[in-house]
UniProtKB/TrEMBL annotation:
One Pfam family recorded for the sequence: Aminotran_3
PROSITE patterns per UniProt: AA_TRANSFER_CLASS_3
Family membership noted in the UniProt record: Belongs to the class-III pyridoxal-phosphate-dependent aminotransferase family.
Essential cofactor(s): pyridoxal 5'-phosphate
Residue stretches in coiled coil: none
This protein's name: Beta-alanine--pyruvate transaminase
Gene Ontology MF term list: adenosylmethionine-8-amino-7-oxononanoate transaminase activity; pyridoxal phosphate binding
Keywords: Aminotransferase, Pyridoxal phosphate, Pyruvate, Transferase
Transmembrane segments: none
Species annotation: Rhizobium lusitanum
Length: 442
C-alpha cells in the first residue's frame, strides 16, 4: 500500500489503467467495492450495495459462493496449471462433458477460451475454417449488426456495431451489418419481445444480394443485445434470420455471453427463442464470474467437418494458453452444480412476470421514454439532455450507487441484470431506489 491523500491504508489509483472507464473522472471520485456476499457488495466505507447487474452480467448464482471457492482452492493445490496443447488434464474433459449435457440443442462440442471476446474471435474463426473445410473457401465475409457488442478483439469489433469501439481501429475487410432492431416509435414499453420489426431480418437477404452468398461465412447476433442497452428481438426476427442464413449456407452464430446460463429463464437463449444456431459463444456465467473463462459451443457437423486430414495434423490452428484452465474448470463445475441444485437456469422464468411488472411500474416517472424487459433483464431508456447525451443516465447510476444499488448505464439507458438468486424484497429495493432517483434528477 502507498500512503496517499485519500487515506493511509488506501492504494494509489495512479497505476491501474481502468478498462471502459473515464479514468480521470473515476479517480477524482472513486467508487470502491471491497467484498461481496449473496446479492450484495460492500464498499470500502462498509456500505451494502445491492448488485443490480450481477457484477457485469456474470455472477448469476450470487457472490461469495463457498462451493466455488472450495473447488478453486482444492484445484489450485492439486493441479494449478497444465497445458492443453498436445496434452490434456481430466477436469477439462469432465467440464466439457458436463457442459455437453446442458448445451444448446445439438451443440455439444466445446472449445474453451478465457473471455467473451476470445469466444467471439474463436466462433468467427471456426465459422471461416468450417466453410473452407467444406469447400466453400470464398466464404470469408462476416456479418454483424448495428448496436451489436461482441467484445474487443478485431473480429468482434468488426462485426460489432458500436461507433466508439470501432472508430479508432482498422477493421476486418468485408464485414457488413444488419440494421439494429431498436424502434421506439413502434415498440416503446414492450413487455417481452416487441411486436414490430420481423422484416428487419430481411436485411440478410439484402446483404446476400449485394455481396453474394458465396462470400459470406457467418452472421453473428446477440439474441438479446445487452451492452447497447437491452434490445429485445422483435417477434419472429431470430427465426427468420435463421431460415435466411440456412437457405444461403451462412452459419448463424449466437453470441450468448450475457444470455447464456439462465439469464432468460432457460439455460441458453436458443431454447427461449426456439432457434438453433450453428455456434454459440459464451463466458461470464460459465464460472459465475469467479475465474475468467469462456466457451464456444459448436455443432457436431461443424466439429466433424474439421476433423479430417492426416491424424497428426492439428485440425484447427487456434487456442489459448488458458483454454481449459484447470482452475477455471473447477470453478465452472462447481458453478454448474449450484445452477442445477438450485434450479437457477430456470429461475429467471419464474421471476420474469414479477420482475417485468415491478420495473414497468417506473414508466410514468420523469425522463423515462422506454422500458423493456425480458427474462431477468431490464432496460430503462431516458430522454437525453440536449447536447449532453449520457449524462442523465450516468447521474442516475451515481445517485443509485450512493443510495445502495448498483446499476449499469450505456448512453442514456439504465441496464439491470441482477443475480438469478434475487428475491422480491430486493426487486423492490431496486425499483424504489430508481424511483427516488428519477424523481430527484433534472
Ligand atoms: C454479447 C457479448 N459478447 C462479448 C462480450 C465480451 O466479453 P469479455 O468482456 O469477457 O471479453 C460481451 C461483454 O459484455 C458481451 O456482452
Amino acid at each position: 500500500m502507498t500512503v496517499t491523500s485519500r487515506g493511509s491504508n488506501e492504494p494509489s489509483l495512479d497505476n491501474f489503467w481502468m478498462p471502459f472507464t473515464a479514468n480521470r473522472q473515476f479517480k477524482a471520485a472513486p467508487r470502491m467495492l471491497a467484498s461481496a456476499k449473496g446479492m450484495y457488495f460492500e464498499d470500502t466505507d462498509g456500505r451494502k450495495i445491492l448488485d443490480g447487474t450481477a457484477g457485469l452480467w456474470c455472477v448469476n448464482a450470487g457472490h461469495g459462493r463457498e462451493r466455488i471457492a472450495d473447488a478453486v482452492h482444492r484445484q489450485l493445490s492439486h493441479l494449478d496449471f497444465a497445458p492443453s496443447f498436445q496434452m490434456g488434464h481430466p477436469i477439462a474433459f469432465e467440464f466439457a462433458r458436463r457442459l455437453g449435457d446442458i448445451a444448446p440443442a445439438g451443440l455439444d462440442r466445446v472449445f474453451f477460451t478465457s473471455s467473451g471476446s476470445e469466444s467471439v474471435e474463436t466462433a468467427l474463426k471456426i465459422a471461416i475454417a468450417y466453410q473452407r473445410a467444406i469447400g466453400q473457401g470464398t466464404r470469408t465475409r462476416l456479418i454483424g449488426r448495428e448496436r451489436g457488442y461482441h467484445g474487443v478483439g478485431f473480429g468482434g469489433l468488426s462485426v460489432g456495431g458500436i461507433l466508439n469501439n470501432r472508430r479508432v481501429y482498422p477493421l476486418l475487410p468485408g464485414a457488413d451489418h444488419l440494421r439494429h432492431t431498436h424502434d421506439l416509435d413502434r415498440n416503446a414499453f414492450s413487455k417481452g419481445q416487441p411486436e414490430h420489426g420481423v422484416e428487419l431480418a430481411d436485411d440478410l437477404e439484402g446483404l446476400v444480394a449485394l455481396h453474394g452468398a458465396e462470400t459470406i461465412a457467418a452472421v453473428i447476433v446477440e439474441p438479446v443485445a445487452g451492452s447497447t442497452g437491452v434490445l429485445v428481438p422483435p417477434r419472429g426476427y431470430l427465426e427468420r434470420l435463421q431460415s435466411i442464413a440456412r437457405k444461403h449456407g451462412i452459419l448463424l452464430i449466437f453470441d450468448e455471453v450475457i444470455t447464456g446460463f439462465g439469464r432468460l429463464g432457460t439455460p441458453f437463449a436458443t431454447e427461449y427463442f426456439g432457434v438453433e444456431p450453428d455456434l454459440v459463444s459464451t463466458a461470464k456465467g460459465l464460472t459465475n464470474g469467479a475465474v475468467p473463462m469462456g466457451a464456444v459451443f459448436a455443432s457436431r457437423k461443424i466439429h466433424d467437418a474439421l476433423m479430417t486430414g492426416p491424424d497428426h495434423v492439428i485440425e484447427l490452428f487456434h487456442g489459448y494458453t488458458y483454454s481449459g484452465h484447470p482452475v477455471a474448470c473447477a470453478a465452472g463445475l462447481a458453478t454448474l452444480d449450484i445452477y442445477q441444485e438450485e434450479g437457477l437456469l430456470r429461475r429467471a422464468g419464474h421471476l420474469a412476470t414479477e420482475w417485468r411488472e415491478a420495473i414497468h411500474g417506473l414508466r410514468d416517472l420523469p425522463h423515462v421514454i422506454d422500458i423493456r424487459t425480458v427474462g431477468l433483464i431490464a432496460g430503462i431508456e431516458l430522454q437525453s439532455r440536449a447536447d449532453a447525451i449520457g449524462t442523465r443516465a450516468y447521474e442516475v447510476f451515481v445517485r443509485a450507487f450512493d443510495k445502495g444499488v448498483l446499476t449499469r448505464v450505456t448512453g442514456d439507458i439504465i441496464a439491470l441484470s441482477p443475480p438469478l438468486i434475487i428475491e422480491t424484497g430486493q426487486i423492490d429495493q431496486i425499483v424504489s431506489t430508481l424511483h427516488d432517483v428519477l424523481i430527484e434528477i433534472l
